[in-house]
Amino acid sequence: MKYIVVLGDGMADEPIAEIGGKTPLMYAKTPAMDALASKSEIGLARTIPDGMKPGSDTANLAVLGYNPKQYYTGRSPLEALSIGVPMKDTDIAIRCNIVTVSDDGLPYEEKKIIDHSSGEISTEEAALLMEAIRKEMNDEQFQYYVGTSYRHLTIWDKGEVVELTPPHDVLGQVIGQHLPAEKKLCDMMKRSYDILNNHPVNIERAKKGLNKANSLWFWGAGTRPVLDSFEGKYHKKGAMISAVDLLKGIAVGADMTNIEVEGANGTLETNWEGKADAAVKALLEDGFDFVYIHMEAPDEMGHQGSLERKIKAIEYLDERVLAKVVEKMNQSGEPYRMLVMPDHPTPIACRTHTDDAVPYMLYDSREDTESAGLYNEADARKSGIVVEQGYTLMSKLLEK
Questions:
Q1: What is the spatial distance between Cα 44 and Cα 22, in angstroms, rounded to a whole number?
Q2: Which of 1, 91, 227, 233 could bridge to 87 as Cys pair (CB 3.0-4.6 Å)?
């Protein structure tokens, strides 16, 4: 028996008048999901525990079967595991996005965040910018590390976990009231603008009509994480397939294997088919019992407020990942159970995460269950099935 999670990050949404009161998941053409839905359990799951912020960190921990209330110590420490940054017990890890703030001549506090991802900047360009940051700002207290695309890391020696606002929560807003109360962090963000705004990389980006990647933004502070081994916890040999350091870090912490896929970059132009092929190979050739296939694109499109591209991301997930995995698993004759779901909603209307329950679909290749619904938010709600503690879904997936 093999086990699969197909995770469309931020895929869930709210009804949108522009597409007839449907959600992107309802509107998208998803023949593979439709075919599975007729033979699956469909319901809702609450992946964000009460009192916790709706993030991909807490939500993906829950989907992987780890109670966030017990295991969560912050987002950035998980990313530190992925990057390979050693953390002391006294270290604080802080996520530092390279964001686009308005280049308008106003004081830093009066600028607005234009883009939390700097136009999905390439890792190669971002590495050049981070090298300038490291040269000017690395010291005994703060060290900067290159991650992927716009997502990077700061380690604060003998620091403290301070309240910080995610940049995607304040898109289009004046940043002054959202800057860190900790003066050192605030000063470094201001200094980063002076270093980056007229950097050669950004001069070239401006010439091409691209958003400048002209400021660091700190958020997601936390302490060194400690996760139980996934195999020790669930007795399954597991693999993670993701382009995102957060998910890779969770996998490192859980002693899962990270499978790298060439061209996987967390955007709409990611190597969708490569992820599907890698998952099937892991299960059928490399001896893994469980794979977690994570697709970041629906979440990114939600943050961008792009309805058309979010629908496209869902359709790509269906056609280029889910359909391929199902076809190849069926051809192999190997029985399998599969969970299809988002981690959290990222509604187009607000362009950030919410803590609403998300729809899940649980399929077993050995069963021929009759289901009246399709896989979407509305039909999941109609089912009357609600998994109140989302972290128990993993046991549900693995129970047979």
A1: 17
A2: 91
Is 354 buried (19+), middle (13-18) or exposed (0-12) by CB count in 10 A?
middle
Contact 153, 83 (CB under 8 A): yes
- The CA distance from 81 to 249, in Å, is 5
DSSP characters over 249-262 = HHHHHTTPEEPP-T
Which among 333, 336, 354 is positioned nearest to 345, based on CA atoms?
354
Structure tokens that stand for 310 in this block: 């979010």
Burial 296-317 (b: 16+ CB within 10 A, else e): bbbbbbbbbbbbebbbbbbbbb
DSSP states of 177-210: GGS-SSHHHHHHHHHHHHHHTTSHHHHHHHHTTP
Query: For each of the chain's 400 residues, which pLDDT tens digit applies?
Result: 999 999 999 999 999 999 999 999 999 999 999 999 999 999 999 999 999 999 999 999 999 999 999 999 988 999 999 988 989 989 999 999 999 999 999 999 999 999 999 999 999 999 999 999 999 999 999 999 999 899 999 999 999 999 999 999 999 999 999 999 999 999 999 999 999 999 999 999 999 999 999 999 999 999 988 899 999 999 999 999 999 999 999 999 999 999 999 999 999 999 999 999 999 999 999 999 999 999 999 999 999 999 999 999 999 999 999 999 999 999 999 999 999 999 999 999 999 999 999 999 999 999 877 777 899 999 999 999 999 999 999 999 998 5
31: helix, strand or coil: helix
Counting beta carbons within 10 angstroms of the beta carbon of residue 140, is it exposed (0 to 12), middle (13 to 18) or buried (19 or more)?
exposed
The percent of the chain in helix, strand and coil, each rounded to the nearest 5, is: 40, 20, 40
Q: Which CATH class is domain 2-72+227-398?
A: alpha beta
Instruction: Give this prediction's pTM.
Output: 0.85
Alpha helices in the chain (DSSP H): 24-27, 31-37, 56-63, 68-71, 75-83, 123-137, 183-196, 200-207, 230-234, 245-253, 272-284, 297-304, 307-316, 323-332, 377-382, 393-398
* CA within 13 Å, CB half, 186: 13
